Amino acid sequence: MHGKDLEALQQVQTFSIHERQHKVSVADFVNLQGWQRHDSLRTLFPRILKGLDITAVVDGFVAAYRRRRAIIFALGAHVIKCGLSPLLIDMMRRGWLQGLVLNGAGVIHDLEVALIGATSEDVAQNLGAGRFGMVEETPQLINTALQEFHSVQVGMGAALGQAIASGDYPYKGHSLLAAAHTYQVPLTVHVAIGADTIHMHPTTDGAVLGQATYRDFQRLTLLLRGLHDGGCYWNIGSAVLLPEVFLKALTLCRNTGHQVERFLTVNLDMLQHYRTEYNVVRRPTQDGGLGYTLIGHHEIMLPLLYAIVREAIESSA
Asked: Residue 119 contacts by C-beta under 8 Å, 6 or more apart in sequence?
């Protein structure tokens, strides 16, 4: 390197830090004084990156509740296995939710909890001997309920909700299906035939099962009308099935002349997946609305969000 080259490097031009624009300031930092003064959980989040997102999600939920727009939660089965049903039941009791969406595995875990207060078998332990999913009671109870309500043209969620709420289920107080029936919150169930353990049982009738879940697809399509202009749709822990169902139901709703725009979507999961990113967060809101992704364990994130939402609603009551 020549001397002239080194000399050129010394010709550095600087400017004052006060002239520079900044992405972060102390005004955006965690506000411990605000929390201690107001006991407000939201002040514990910095107004930076996902700290901004989580408060925006809460604000969207609270705004939808106050404006009487639909708030719909779609749940993967893991949410139930994480012990979060009491939070969701309380949300229904308070009138916060206008719809719940489950997959087939969610129904299985919910019914087993209502029946014996426990669920979730050890798959590895039972798979080798061909015993995985081969209990008697779960498929018998589900299939019997679907057969019983088949003639009255109700969907799978309504049939099972009524069956559990009115049946001999000692732990029905922990059942989302029963609570939805009690609090008259529409609950739809969306099944991929062959994906759930009950489909291996000889009492399963594919025609009855298919008709029941198809009725719920139609019901969900109608429910989505309530999202227009300020509603909220949260996908919690379903990576494939429910995001696909949501996109098709939304398309059908719009295709039949119903405007569903300017709403907020949230994907809450432990990992980021393709379908949730595009079918929940991006595509449904691309012509108006907001989409957010919050990554974290359900058993931590959902109680935290519940607490902040409840604080916000009760503080303004």
From this structure: 80, 81, 108, 109, 112, 113
